[in-house]
Structures are given as structure tokens and as C-alpha cells.
Write a structure and sequence with these properties.
Strand order of the largest sheet: 1-8-7-3-4-5-6-2
Main location: cytoplasm
Domain PEP-utilising enzyme mobile: 155-227
Bound molecules: phosphoenolpyruvate, magnesium ion
CATH topology of the largest domain: TIM Barrel
CATH class of the largest domain: Alpha Beta
Enzyme class: transferase
Strand content: 5-15%
CATH architecture of the largest domain: Alpha-Beta Barrel
Largest sheet: 8 strands, mixed
Number of domains: 3
Subcellular location: Cytoplasm
Number of strands: 17
Domain Phosphotransferase system enzyme I N-terminal: 6-128
Helix content: 40-55%
């Protein structure tokens, strides 16, 4: 009997193969005490040593299979394995609570994992919980004598079906045999989803209950773009997926051929396609997908990655790596955007009724200006290594930009006086993500070098619809003419002053929005790296006059997001 499931499409492509059910090793046991603490500590140490060998081996496979950057996940695992606080926790439980080694590891691991998991609004910290679980499960497996299944030994074509896949599981996947994977849990930003994208293995995550339903050897179809999964398909469904698979292979080849191409419309108008990154680790994806620069470096992830405020030198190193890697292509670095859903353990923020309307981003930077000054100094010092553009988040009025710019100039002067070399062409811009700034864009355009439209926030503030609240997610309406009018006004205002406008919110890579944005003359499109090539391909099919007319009709004649979407989708369907 055919069964259909839907999850989150995490890595594009179609897979058709037999299910390989991957079950987690059984690590259950009763918490118990032990008399001989020294014996337990030496058992623990032996298990940690064996785990270290395992992880080093997996890192080796990952380095061959994946990029150096992805293999770094296992450096992070080695760091967790040798973390003194964790080890002291285990030994403390053995000595003070007289627990045996497995019980000590389980209790301490559970405590750390639930602490990170409790940061519900913070996917980054939740992923750290997954890393700690991955490492401590391995220690436990050695202590309990349980074998961890070896995915690298799969030797026939399969679709892997699992409750979850850890980064170590994913790194061992051989893409010659593992044609796709499907998991019950996970989101687009979980490590395994990110790795699936770089391995180019079609993947659907967050399906709910599939692992307990599917049996080994059943035929499984996976569409990693739409999130569809079909088990034991009928002939018509199988034929349909086969046809889509061939179609996707053709599309992919077409996209890949554009890796080194300029981004041009059919009639030769040029646009800039750049990538959003959260850390230097994302640079491989930037290059692999033919980005023409970085349009948004979310530096808050650098702050969130660390147990304490990163020093000026640490920040300088991170910015320098990114600038050097881009070898003269533009890099837009956004100053710290903390607050809202992003918190730092070492920077206490007040409890607020409406954190997205509260103490956030540039508001914190101007209030606690030593934070902004440190970051700007690090950026100024790194500026000689590439083409740096700095932008300030959450600007709502001109005064904020003027203050931030004054701080920038003061720090620049101080550094120059101290003999530092600093690039003389650093552009200063702002995010347009608050409607008040969008409406005043003509005034801002006289003072800034560029705008970057942050649609994730601009839409939530314009529609008064919290971006984290699924009950109002229907109000996330990127093609609503009200939003399109704001965007158009901002682009036109910048052009009147000879400035440029980019977009770094999710809408920039939205295939329905792209024709409209091209039609409105957006200069720079910044998106997650895997969306770049398909967007370049789409732009190459557009005629600039036609999409200009499309945008005009959307803005002047239409009155709903749906109406606009239907019009654009019909237009795109007709393109060759
Ligand atoms: C935005 O608001 O669109 C944006 C790019 O910033 P963030 O998603 O980090 O708030
Ligand atoms: Mg934002």
C-alpha cells in the first residue's frame, strides 16, 4: 500500500531507492552506583580515548568526502570530548555521587543537553545540544560495549530512513550508495541538513513519524525540494518521480554551468548575486555556488559561538579570513544583531513583553557603545584584506545612523593615529527592515552608501505579524503590493542619489519574488548559497522590459499577495 508523507525539503533533488532503516544503538541502562571510584574513572578515560580515535577516523572520512570546513564539525566534537568542564562533571559524579561511569556520563550529558535545548528560540544552541549528544552517546556506547552502526559500509543504493541523523552519521554517508535520506526530526538549519546540501544528497527532514512505519527494503521516493516522501509507490507515482528526476538532473547541469558566469538577464542587464553567511565555515558554500561576494555576514553568530564576548583580536581574525577568502569581491558585514530571538549567555538582556520591538541590534550597540566600538575597530583593522562594506541593523531614524557613523569615524581616526593601515573605500550602509526607515529612504539615501533590505523583519513589522508565531505566519506576504511598494520606493530613492540597494532577507532568493525584484531594479540579491545558481538561471531567462511591466502591474493594479503570485508564476511557467 502506498503511503505519502510530507516534511521539510532540506536538500534539493529526487531519490528513488530501497529503504535502509537506520536505528540508533540501544544505550538504555539503569542508573547505578559503584564502589571503586578509581576503577570507574579509568573506565571513563579508556572510553574517552576510544571515542577520540573514532572521531578522528570519522574526521578523516569527512575530509575526503566533504569539505575541510565541514570536517571542522569534528574538531568541535573533539573539543567537546576534551572539554575540562564536561570531564570534571563526569569525574565529580563518580567521586561525589558514587555513580558508575555510564551513569555519571548520562547524568552530566543530560544536564548540558537540556540546558542548550531549553534555548528554544535559538537553533544554533539547539544544534550544540545535538553535538554534545553525539559525543556523549559515543562515550556511552564504549562504556556499555554497544556497537555504533557503521554507515560507511553501505554498499548498495539506498534511501536512509532514521529518527535523526547526527553530523557523524551524515559525514560517513557515501553518496554513491546513499541516494537520499529522510528523518523524523530536524530542520533546514540542522547540521545534517547543511551537510546533505553540500554532499548534494536529496533530503527531507522533520517528517514526524516515518522511521517507525517504514520497513527495510521498501521502495522509497524522496523529493528534497518539495519535502514529499512516498513509500511503496504505485506505478503512476513512480513514473512521475522518474520524470521529475530526469528533469531535475537537466536543471542541475544547467545551473552548474552558470557557476562562473555573470548574472545577466536575457537582454544583458547585470545584477549581483551574493551569499548570506553566519561564519567563516560557510565560505566553501559561497565559492562552490559561484557567489559574487557576501551580501550579509551575520556576525552575531560569531558572538553566539563563544562562551564569552569575543575579543577585538578574535573578531579581527574572523573578519580577515572572510575578506581574504573573497579575494577582493565585496563583503557586507552587519554589526551585531543581538536581541529579539538571539541571546548571548554573557550579555544579560532585560525580559521584555515584545523583544522584537525592544532592546535589539543597533539600539544595544549605541547604548553599550563599547561593544560597537570593539567590533568596528576589528573591522577597520581587517579592512585592508579585501573589499569591506559595513551595515548597521535595525536603523529606524537618521539620528541612529549618524551616531553609528560618528563612532565609526572616531575609531578610524584613533586607529590611524596609532599607525594602523585602513582601507579608504569602506562603504557604510544600513539595513532597511523597519518601515519608518523605508518610508524615509529618500532622506537616508543622501547620507548612506547603500541599503540592504531585510525582508524578514520588514514584513513582520509592516504586517504587525511576529515572525516566530506560526498562528500569524499567513501574514508573511512577500508579494503583498504594500511590501512591494516599500521595496520599490527604497530602490528608487537610492538610485536618485546614485547609491545602490541590495536585499538580504529570504525574499531575495524566493523564485516568485526574483522576477519582480529584477523588474524593480534591485542591484544586489543576497541569499543562502545553495539558492544562487538556480536564481542566476532564472534571471538569465528574464527580459528586463517584461519584468519591469510585471512589477508595475503588481504594484499599481493588484491588491493581494496571492494575485501577484499567480501572475508571476504564470509568467515564469511560460519562460523557456
Ligand atoms: C532580515 O530581517 O531580513 C534579515 C536579513 O536579518 P535577520 O533575519 O538576521 O533578522
Ligand atoms: Mg533582521
Amino acid at each position: 500500500m502506498m503511503d505519502k508523507y510530507t516534511g521539510i525539503g532540506a536538500s534539493d533533488g529526487i531519490a528513488i531507492a530501497k529503504a535502509f532503516l537506520y536505528e540508533e544503538p540501544n544505550l538504555s541502562f539503569e542508573i547505578s552506583e559503584a564502589e571503586d571510584a578509581d576503577h570507574e574513572v579509568s573506565r571513563l578515560e579508556a572510553a574517552i580515548d576510544q571515542s577520540r580515535e573514532d572521531i578522528q577516523g570519522i574526521r578523516q572520512v569527512a575530509q575526503e568526502n566533504l569539505s575541510a570546513e565541514e570536517a571542522q564539525v569534528f574538531d568541535a566534537h573533539l573539543t567537546i570530548l576534551d572539554d575540562p568542564e564536561l570531564k570534571a562533571g563526569f569525574v565529580g559524579k563518580i567521586n561525589d555521587a558514587s555513580l558508575d561511569a555510564p551513569s555519571a556520563v548520562r547524568e552530566v550529558a543530560d544536564m548540558f543537553i537540556s540546558m542548550f535545548q531549553a534555548m528554544e528560540d535559538n537553533p544554533y544552541m539547539q544544534e550544540r545540544a545535538a553535538d554534545i549528544k553525539d559525543v556523549t552517546d559515543r562515550i556511552l556506547a564504549h562504556l556499555l560495549g554497544v556497537k555504533i552502526p557503521d554507515l560507511s559500509t553501505i554498499t548498495e543504493e539506498v534511501v536512509l530512513v532514521a529518527v535523526d541523523l547526527t553530523p557523524s552519521d551524515t559525514a560517513q554517508l557515501n553518496r554513491n550508495y546513499v541516494k537520499g535520506f529522510v528523518t523524523d526530526i530536524g530542520g533546514r538549519t540542522s547540521h545534517s541538513a547543511i551537510m546533505a546540501r553540500s554532499l548534494e544528497i536529496p533530503a527531507v527532514v522533520g517528517v514526524g513519524k516515518i522511521a517507525s512505519q517504514v520497513k527495510d527494503g521498501q521502495l522509497v521516493l524522496v523529493n528534497g525540494s518539495t519535502g514529499e516522501v512516498v513509500v511503496e509507490p504505485d506505478q503512476a507515482t513512480l513514473d512521475h518521480f522518474q520524470a521529475e528526476k530526469e528533469q531535475f538532473a537537466k536543471l542541475k547541469a544547467e545551473w552548474d554551468s552558470l557557476k562562473d558566469a555573470d548574472t545577466l538577464t536575457k537582454d544583458g542587464k547585470q545584477f549581483e548575486l551574493v551569499a548570506n553567511i553566519g561564519s567563516p565555515k560557510d565560505l566553501d558554500g559561497v565559492h562552490a555556488n559561484g557567489a559574487e561576494g557576501v551580501g550579509l555576514y551575520r556576525t552575531e553568530f560569531l558572538y553566539m559561538d563563544s562562551a564569552e564576548m569575543p575579543t577585538e583580536d578574535e573578531q579581527y581574525e574572523a573578519y580577515k579570513v572572510v575578506l581574504e577568502s573573497l579575494a577582493g569581491q565585496p563583503v557586507v558585514v552587519r554589526t551585531m544583531d543581538i536581541g529579539g530571538d538571539k541571546h548571548l549567555p554573557y550579555l544579560p538582556l532585560p525580559d521584555e513583553m515584545n523583544p522584537f520591538l525592544g532592546y535589539r541590534a543597533i539600539r544595544i550597540g549605541l547604548d553599550q557603545d563599547h561593544l560597537l566600538r570593539t567590533q568596528l575597530r576589528a573591522l577597520l583593522r581587517a579592512s585592508v584584506y579585501g573589499s569591506l562594506r559595513i551595515m548597521f541593523p535595525m536603523i529606524s531614524n537618521l539620528n541612529e545612523f549618524r551616531q553609528a557613523k560618528a563612532i565609526f569615524l572616531e575609531e578610524k581616526e584613533k586607529l590611524q593615529a596609532a599607525g594602523h593601515e585602513i582601507a579608504d573605500d569602506i562603504q557604510l550602509g544600513i539595513m532597511i527592515e523597519i518601515p519608518a526607515a523605508a518610508v524615509l529612504a529618500d532622506k537616508f539615501a543622501k547620507e548612506v552608501d547603500f541599503f540592504s533590505i531585510g525582508t524578514n523583519d520588514l514584513i513582520q513589522y509592516s504586517m504587525a505579524a511576529d515572525r516566530m508565531n506560526e498562528n500569524v505566519s499567513y501574514l508573511y506576504q512577500p508579494y503583498n503590493p504594500s511590501i512591494l511598494r516599500l521595496i520599490k520606493f527604497v530602490i528608487d530613492a537610492s538610485h536618485k542619489e546614485g547609491k545602490w540597494t541590495g536585499m538580504c532577507g529570504e525574499v531575495a532568493g524566493d523564485q516568485t519574488a526574483v522576477p519582480l525584484l529584477v523588474g524593480m531594479g534591485l542591484d544586489e540579491f543576497s541569499m543562502s548559497a545553495p539558492s544562487i545558481l538556480k536564481t542566476r538561471s532564472l534571471i538569465s531567462k528574464l527580459d528586463s522590459q517584461e519584468v519591469q511591466e510585471l512589477a508595475r502591474r503588481a504594484i499599481e493594479e493588484m491588491d493581494s499577495s496571492d494575485e501577484v503570485a499567480s501572475m508571476v508564476e504564470a509568467y515564469v511557467a511560460d519562460l523557456d
